[in-house]
Amino acid sequence: MASITKFILLSLTLCVLHLNFCHGQNAVKAGYWFPDSGIALSDIDSKLFTHLFCAFADLDPQSNKVTISSSNAGPFSQFTKTVQLKNPSVKTLLSIGGGNSNRADFASMASQSSSRKSFIDSSINLARANNFHGLDLDWEYPQSASEMKNLGSLLDEWRAAVATEAKNSGKPQLILTAAVSFASKVDGLYQYPIPSVSRSLDWINLMAYDFYAPDRPSTSTRCHAALKDPSGQASGSSGIADWEKAGVGAKKLVLGIPFYGYAWRLVNANNHGILAPANGAAGPDNGVERYQDIRTFVAQTPGAVVVYNSTYVCNYCYAGTTWIGYDDNQTVSTKVSYAKQNGLLGYFAWHIGADDNLALSRQASQAWGA
């Protein structure tokens, strides 16, 4: 009995000392939200999620500190309190950066230990001041081997800092995550710092979408977030396999699911399958369409047809010369089931506000199960 007790104590000690703190997270059913996303914070059914990301905090390029804009200060400060009214166990994370942030600012910040410290210390202070349970880095994307090396230093120093802060404050250690390219190399060139990712992040959010868009010279319709692709091109499953081959375990991987699609303009209305000839976007904003707007398009457009393609695992709809590739209920259910069956930690959605009355959020939660 004494030897068993000693073994248990030793195991617990190693767990606490390990840089990648044992949060005991069984699954991640997550989604991103931002103030102008189209859904009020109070309307989110947080029972459908285990984690919610609040986006985005900013990086001040002069001070290298993480800041929250004055317009977001109110919603961000109330984020955790509000979503926990419906689900007291939901965990919240403050996401930093985003696709519209300046990647050069992140590269500059990560290049020096002093500026990394400014970033790290300010992020921890902001998270605690606004009652978040964790922090999420969305640097899109490091663009050189040296930037990836600096990212590794940032992640390791961040983990050490949150461990020290938790020890000194007596509070649970902050969760650390990052939104990353769907594959372990950005543009197939720049390898993420795999050892640092594995030991210093609780998980990574694979942005398994935006593989294709009407503005990237392309002459045919494509599913921008296909789970599979028989041609061997970009897909969610190939990204998962690539990260695992690089050395990141499945339990560190969370699969991204888009709640939006892209509308393409068909060259010939009678040729409307995947890879049909197309000549650009059908509509403004490069053809980006929220799921709720796609549902409206289908309901209100005479002759609109919806197709589920099991080979690619994606949906598309068409009417006239408009063709939209997106994720509908069956696609979401298949993707979530795939993630669970392949041992991934979970899934996340970008973004909750694009959903149609939380229909996809419910479908995803149901597909994963308890």
- CATH architecture call: Alpha-Beta Barrel
Shape descriptor: globular
- Remind me, CATH topology? TIM Barrel
Task: Provide the domain count.
Answer: 1
Q: Return Rg in Å.
A: 21 Å
Task: Give unreliable regions as ranges.
Answer: 1-24
State the fourth-level CATH superfamily. Glycosidases
DSSP strand tally: 17
CATH class: Alpha Beta
Please state roughly what percent of the residues sit in beta strands, choosing from under 5%, 5-15%, 15-25%, 25-35%, 35-45% or over 45%.
15-25%
Q: Helical proportion?
A: 25-40%
> Largest sheet, if any?
8 strands, parallel, barrel
Structural class: alpha/beta
The tally of helices reads 10
H/E order of the elements? HEEEHEHHEHEEEHEHEEEEHEEEHEH
Distance between the termini: 35 Å
As laid out across the biggest beta sheet, the strand order is 1-2-4-5-6-9-10-17
Average predicted confidence as pLDDT: 93
